[in-house]
Structure of Deoxycytidylate deaminase:
Amino acid sequence: MFIGICGSICAGKSTIAQYLVEHHGFTRVSLEHTTKTIDDIVNGESPNDHVNGLVRKLLPAYITTPSQTSTSARSKGHVFPSADDLLDFITKHWRERWVTTDVPTEGILDMYIRRPFFLLISVDAPLTVRWRRFREREEKRQQRHRNNKQSTSSSAGGAALQAEAEDDEEEEDPLTFESFAHLNDTQLFLPQTGRLPLMSRATVRLLNTSPSLAHLYATLGNLDLLNPDRLRPSWDSYFMALASLAAQRSNCMKRRVGCVVVRDKRVISTGYNGTPRGLINCGEGGCGRCNEGQGSGQGLSTCLCLHAEENALLEAGRERVREDAVLYCDTCPCLTCSIKIAQVGISEVVYSQGYSMDGETAAVFRKAGVRLRQFVPPANGLIHLEKTDFCS
């Protein structure tokens, strides 16, 4: 498995990579030219000359880059001169676990993402949160600098005192919040090299407002980032995706529902909701009941729309369903459909979203001996690490 991590300044990229190293046995890999690439990005391209100067002066100290921090990777020979070399190496060792924060351009991402064992994760946080982390990092850096100077002074004697005074005079001006915001804009939004397009392509997009390292690690543990479904969908994920795709063909103006009937892991039929063949599409006014905007469960006797499950069952036919057939539907079947599903001999129903009649439907299936279960895929899309519910 190969995980790439991209994101904004001080969002937590290296911290998440370190979590994967410490808790899941990943190894860091990086590119030699990372720092140079960042300098190239900001050199002469920012509209603000003051920010250009600050970036060139402060970026190496403030922004963690893999080529600077991955001492273990460097010592083990896991720093590569190019993305081609890195990818060639990982392809030969693809069964092992690798992680990088070196995803600097969309061109390199396109190379990585061709590999079916690659997963892109992005991480972001509010600007004020990242500014606070930035200042905390600066305070620690300055403290280390002072400690080093004190150690040098004590060992070098009086000659070092003059040098120390000169160093104090040359101490860089602290980066203001406004300059940090400009630096953030440079990193994210430059037309050719901004990181935002990379972040938008991530399978998992983390919003990291975690107040502590312990909280972040605990939340990452609950996400099950290594779930193989994210790389190669399970059968449930695969067939539910087909049901969701079928739903896009719905011609009903009130709700989109898709359904797939499967036997022996082979698709027998698909269906979506809408008016029957030969009638005007519901979305074009063909069903008066739907177009009048009546509430859920009201006026069903006058509805002209077939349900997705009905369409799929009609397409399959009783002889093709037989035993052990499974019906996948992106919405839990209604009571009327549940009776028909039981009649044709479906053995199991798998659904994604609930509906207003779930209790009644479950009761029918229980009496008819039809298994009913809800499919819950691994969390993808936008995930707020301080919330237990995930948004996609």
Summary: The first helix runs from residue 13 to 24.
